[in-house]
Design goal:
Shape: elongated
Number of strands: 11
Structural class: alpha+beta
Number of domains: 1
CATH topology: Porin
CATH architecture: Beta Barrel
Radius of gyration: 18 Å
Order of helices and strands: HHEEEEEEEEEEE
Number of helices: 2
């Protein structure tokens, strides 16, 4: 945990990573508690699945002359057990944190982009499935030149689509694209590898 936090420089994002780690630990202990208590969690049925995963991504600044940034992240979520419509699709809530690498802007300096996204998602039924998602995004974009350094924060709506492959009952891999509507205007092309339990 400390090693992960040492790589996160922005105070708001340090708090977000700590929150994500706490949620992950709570989810794991909550699932164990629910199993111990005969399938209930605080007296309520808990039939859905928790999701935890890793993300490899490219952050697109949506500026043609600027290179995409390599990024990595984590995904936490919960898949509700109720089927949506006749097609058998499911809904999830997902929280993801993505940290971009410092990326050179030719002849200018460099930039680093980080994102914290909260989504409601829909996945179709089947081994190969389609994914649609929408929600809110917080991003910070740090631009560094010889003369100055500036960080631009933005909170905005975000939406995306993806394609996934279920690996039995306990895992999935996905490719997806998301784009925010904020001042930072960041796109994200990602690959997720997730465990479901």
């Amino acid at each position: 945990m400390n090693k992960l936090l040492n790589n996160v420089t922005h105070p708001s994002l340090r708090l977000a990573v700590t929150l994500l780690a706490t949620i992950a630990l709570s989810a794991a202990s909550g699932t164990a508690l629910a199993k111990k208590n005969g399938g209930t969690f605080f007296g309520k049925e808990a039939k859905g699945k928790w999701i935890i995963g890793v993300k490899a991504a490219k952050i697109d600044s949506n500026v043609e002359e600027v290179n995409d940034a390599d990024a990595k992240g984590i995904v936490l979520g919960y898949e509700f057990d109720r089927v949506i419509g006749d097609s058998g699709g499911t809904a999830t809530v997902e929280l993801e944190y993505v940290q971009g690498d410092d990326t050179v802007i030719d002849g200018f300096g460099s930039y680093e982009a980080n994102m914290l996204n909260l989504f409601m998602t829909y996945r179709t039924a089947g081994t190969i499935y389609f994914k649609a998602k929408g929600g809110a995004s917080y991003s910070d974009l740090t631009i560094t030149t010889v003369a100055f350094q500036d960080t631009l924060d933005s909170v905005s709506l975000v939406g995306g689509i993806g394609l996934g492959y279920r690996i039995g009952d306990y895992g999935a891999v996905e490719v997806e694209y998301t784009d925010d509507t904020g001042d930072n205007d960041l796109g994200l092309i990602g690959f997720n590898a997730m465990l479901e339990f």
